[in-house]
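User: I want to check something. If I give you two sequences, will you return the structure for each one separately, not as a complex?

Assistant: Yes, each is folded on its own. Here is the first sequence with its structure:
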Amino acid sequence: MLLLKKIFDFYLNASIHVAVATAALVQMTFYFCRLPFDATVTAFVFFGTVFSYNFIKYASFVAKQKTFSPSLKSIIVLSILSLIITVYCFFCLELKTQLVSILFGILCVLYVIPVTKSKTNLRNFAGIKIYIVSLCWAGVTTLIPIINANLPIEIDVIYKFLQRFLLTLILILIFEINDLKYDDARLRTVPQTIGVTKTKLFIYCLLIPFFFLEFLKVNYYPNQWIINLILVITITFFTYFASSKRSKYYTLFWVESVPIFWLLLIMSFRF
């Protein structure tokens, strides 16, 4: 059991689970846009997520330490391998996809590296963190697959982008509720600013446009409203029980699994 727990913790701490979640959203883009599976785009997003998340989480810590635990060494090795694969996949993408990817990459770098003389990065600007992450998730999982397939950015794509943006924003807010006792007060997260109860109400409000955006799409899938309703109920459940007293697994595994659950629902209703 101890070995299984170590493997599971590594799976979460090495950002593999969140990478599976982003890859799941990419597969949804392929499905809804009637695109064939693209291994290069999938690998680019998956390994790019592993590297970028680990870079954000561990870069400053690694820079200050001289010795590392075996687990952290494994994460560093995985991150380097992920970077190599990401770079290789990057050069296999279309030129315009590369340019869009660079924009999101710059946001990722600025998220960690100081942009002011006071050594403040975008992550530390009060209230901006959740929008940066939401923008990157929505852009990478929606725009990159479509642009690389040379499809036009039509109104349905914009609705998909907005849905992904709202979903990511909602999940981050649940994370912020769970991490309330750990977050630096200077970050001024939403729960720190307006409280847990109002943050949950805000999430419930965001779920409304997330659900109804589906009905605005031109290429509407008949079963999609059922799928999205199940998803909304699931997120409502996670929101209601979110608390700073919950373990890290509540968000790192269960809440982060929402995009994967969404894909599984879509695959189930295909038949």
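And separately, the second sequence with its own structure:
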Amino acid sequence: MKPIFHYISLLILTTVLFSSCKKERTDLVTTTITPAKTTGPAATAHVVVSPASNAVLTFTWEPAKTGNYSGVFYEVQFDKENGNFTKPIYRSGTGRQNVEPKLVLSHKEVNKLAYAAGIPELATGKVRWRVVASNGVIEAFSEPSVISLARPAGFAENPTDVYLSGEATETGADLAKAMKFKRLSDGVFELYTALSPGSYKLTDKTSGTPLTFSVDGGLLKEAASGASPAAVKTVYRINLDFNKSTAVLTEIQSAGLWFAPYNRIQATLAYAGQGVFRATDVQVTWKQETWGKDERYKFRVSEKGPAGTIAVRNWGSSNKDNSRPTSGTAASYFFLREVDNTQYDYTYKFMSESEKADIELNFGASADYTHKITFK
């Protein structure tokens, strides 16, 4: 049997533990924080946004202070001129892991937030901004400041992809079948295609809720659709530059196989659709020279610009001189590059002679521009 004092000890211990649970905490940390005070840009500042430059815009403020000297972290929030920051249009932490009392934004980023604020290109509008200071426990908000921003021509956010659809296009109005542009660089796209009379639209995707664009007088604009410039079915090279909001539709008048030994077009290629030009049953006969037979060729494409100017583009090899290909030659041998108009430089060589050969010039947007010779 256990001694009576053992049970008494357990009773005392339980009472002490219960009492300690009921005891109010007196060691909780309490703190205060004063709001930051914005210092720049001034409310009267007017910024002409230049996203193509290296310019930056710096937002500064007097640091917030805490009652217990704990660290302060910052976030800068932006909203429309009449916004209340319930849903900021743009927000950003600051430098040095959000403790630096300033925010530096490139003009490219400023252009994005101006667009988000509803300021159209080539227009001026205002944006509100404030500083949110926090020590991890409580937050303090600065008084909002306002800044005037003038946007340039061009889109604030360049699309990653661009598609063409509509009744005037080769693939029709079904967006799922839209033709995809070839992306040449950031914001710059190209597509060889045919347009007929009717409407079309440019989109940044083929599902969900895409952004839609059209061409108006050589300028890219957000619009539900546009009217084709073609009175009859016409083949174009379409170039879009979202950095400058420009579009150029160049008419393709003809495409030809240019045979260097005779210094002339040997065969004309007809447009077959989807950026492809073809000629069938072309006789490939090399020219006999005193030193042997010459089999060199490249391509020439005649174009008419928007102003009616006629120009010829030469398409050939990236190599100034080439060996004759074989059945095992890499596909890259046949890739097309725009070259000069010299008679013999940057030409390819026919693999063989033939009474009949099919010639294909492929400006399809899904891969490198290339060509194919099929001997029969």
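Because they were folded independently, the notes below concern the second chain alone. Residues 252-375 form one domain. The mean pLDDT is 91.
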